[in-house]
Amino acid sequence: MRVPKRERGQLSRRQIVDYSEFSNIGYCKLTVSSILENIQDYSAVLVLTNGRLTQEICFEFGKKVTALTVRPILITGFVGVNLFDTCVGYQRRLHSDVIFMNAQKDYDDCMFVAKALGFSGTNVVASGLPFIGEIKKKFDFPDAIETVVFAGQPDVPERIVERVYILSQLIEYARRFPERQVYLKPRHKPSRKINTLYSSPL
After folding, report:
1. What distance in Å separates the CA atoms of residue 202 and residue 184, rounded to the nearest whole number?
2. Mapping DSSP to helix (H, G, I), strand (E, B) and coil, where does residue 41 land?
3. What are the two backbone dihedrals, phi and then psi, of residue 46, each rounded to the nearest 5 degrees?
4. What would the pLDDT profile of 76-121 be if each residue is shown by its tens digit?
């Protein structure tokens, strides 16, 4: 098994051992040429990157495998929960042998696009998020709301004015319900400096 080496956010050896069945892992660069190097030695190529890079990999993969007698299977998916542009994401992955979708809604949207483009859509599979697994525990809803946690995202919404609007709404909510604890969980490490607009009192 070979995986791209990241500058940050790389899975540790302990995480790989504890949460996967792989032990012998090699690394490559996060580039199209490095990812597809010696692909004839592998049974499958699993691509879970952003849409643009995935599209480039699919294109180069198609050119490489034409010269192979036996080729690996190309599997693509989305890196997380699809917040928008599911249809565009599908079009960037439609030449994959298998495309994993995270939810039934994503599957239905992609099947609609597939039919519109004249594809059968038989390579689309609704798999769910692989790291969640089956949730067997039943949760009871509390009688009253005591704590609210809002998890920020790195690029949604994208515009600064929209981010400021969300923050203002959270502050207004906290003022309206002073008996509740309201937390904002930013998507960055505590040591990282952020824009003064976010760190200034509002």
Report:
1. 14
2. helix
3. -105, 120
4. 988 766 656 778 888 888 889 999 988 888 889 889 888 888 888 8
Categorise residue 94: left if φ over 0, alpha if ψ from -120 to 50, beta otherwise: alpha
**Is 133 exposed, middle or buried (CB count within 10 Å of its CB: 0-12, 13-18, 19+)?**
exposed
DSSP H stretches of helix in the chain: 13-19, 32-35, 51-65, 86-91, 104-117, 160-176, 196-199
Calculate Rg over the CA atoms of the chain.
21
| Phi and psi angles of residue 49, each rounded to the nearest 5 degrees, phi first | -125, -175
Please give the structure tokens belonging to residue 182.
């309201």
Alpha-carbon span 123 to 58, nearest angstrom: 14
Cα first-last separation, the chain: 50
The CA dihedral of 150, 84, 46, 54, to the nearest 10 degrees, is: -120
What's the gap between Cα 19 and its chain centre? Answer: 18
- Per the CB < 8 A criterion, the answer to whether 48 and 79 are in contact is yes
Domain positions in the chain are 31-126, 147-199
| pTM (two decimals) | 0.63
Task: Give the whole-angstrom CA distance, residue 110 versus residue 102.
Answer: 11
Structure tokens at 7: 């500058």
